Each structure stands twice: as structure tokens, then as C-alpha cells.
Amino acid sequence: MNFENYIREVELIIKQNNVEIELYSLIKDIIFSLSYSSKISIRNVSVRRRSDKSKLFYGMAGFPDLIILSPCFKSDEINKDNIYGVVEAKAVGKDILKTSQLIGHIISYNRVLYTNGFKWIYYEYFFNEEEMKFIKEVEKKHYKNSDLGDDYSSFHTGIIDKIESKWEISLIDRNIDGKMNWSRKEWNKLINKLENIEWWCYE
């Protein structure tokens, strides 16, 4: 995926069918063009339903859009060792804020790549041993009952201010007339930042 093709596709999405699912293939194409593409697998789990096989994909905020896996991952695994992170997309140009959904994905998967086509944001946050023990207990209950409880609500509220993005890149700016200007410099910066995500490494 090169810069010109990306611009063309995003502008066609805006013109013809501006829904987040349209970005999924672009995101996958970009990631699969990176040097580490053979070390990961990317699966669309946005329309999965809760089942025994989808259990590990169902996090505190439900199913993410795309999930980054080890190529060794098998659908019958019972732990998250081979789940590296997730991607969450929004319709092109839609605000991408630090929502409860985003925080829930970070709690469940540690790494979240977040984009609306124009802006790309990367989050990475690892919890201590005591926090992880709490998260695992809540996840067991959450899969059976969508009510996460007051303890989780307090935990969620307590970490919101601790979680900050590792980086943010905007591929466009607007001039005084409101016209979009695409930045090749920021595109190159984005590719470099994506190249340096070590999905498979843990603190």
C-alpha cells in the first residue's frame, strides 16, 4: 500500500460508503506491507458472536474490529499468550476519543492501534501482577455475564488518566477554505512508527 493508493481509497470511501468496515482492508494492507508481516496474523473478529471458540477475542469492551495474533495461534487455545493486540477503526473523519470502549480494549489486550483513516493513534499499556490477577477474574465473569460490576467500574475509572497514547499521527490538515491537504511527511512517519511496534514483545 503506497501513499497515493491510500489517499485514493480513503477519498473513495468518503464519497461512496463511509463506514468503518471499509478501512479494515486498508489497515491490513498497510500492516502486511511492513517488514514483520510474517511474524503476525490479522483476523477480522468484528462480527463474531460469543462462543467457546471466540472466548479469547471477547474482551472487556466486547469484540474489537481486528485482532493481531501470532501465526501459531489456534482457535482452541485457552490463554492469550498468542494474542498480541487489536485494531479499532472508526468511519473516516469520525472523532477517535479515549472512550470506555478504547480503555476496555487496552485492559484486555494491552496494545491498541486506533484510526479513522485520517488520524492514527497507538496505545500500549501493561498492568502489574496484582492488576492482571484482578483483570483475569473479571474476564471470567464477564464472558458469562455482561455486567462487569462496581469493582471493575472503579478500576476502569482509576486507570483512565494513567493511559496515554504512545504516538499520534494525522495524515491531513485543512486549509482556510476547509480543503484537505494530505501530508507525505506524516505518511512516512506513520509507516516508520508502525514498523517499530513490537507486537510480540511484553514488558
Task: Summarize this structure briefly.
This protein is an alpha+beta fold.
Could you describe the 3D structure shown?
With 203 residues, this protein is an alpha+beta fold. The chain is built from 6 helices and 8 strands; from the N terminus they run H-H-E-E-E-H-E-E-H-H-E-E-E-H. It has one domain (3-195). The protein is 37% helix and 19% strand. The strands form 2 sheets. It has a 6-stranded mixed β-sheet with strand order 1-2-3-4-5-6, sandwiched between helices. A two-stranded antiparallel ribbon has the order 7-8. Strand 7 and strand 8 (180-182) form a beta hairpin. The chain is globular, with a radius of gyration of 17 Å. The model has no long low-confidence stretch (mean pLDDT 88).
Structural class: alpha+beta
Number of domains: 1
- General shape: globular
Average pLDDT taken over every residue? 88
The succession of helices and strands, N to C, reads: HHEEEHEEHHEEEH
| Tally of individual helices | 6
Task: State the main characteristics.
203 residues; six-stranded mixed β-sheet; 37% helix
Helix-strand blueprint:
Elements: H1 3-16, H2 21-32, E1 41-44, E2 66-69, E3 83-89, H3 100-109, E4 111-115, E5 119-124, H4 129-144, H5 149-159, E6 165-170, E7 172-174, E8 180-182, H6 184-195
Parallel strand pairs: 3-4
Antiparallel strand pairs: 1-2, 2-3, 4-5, 5-6, 7-8
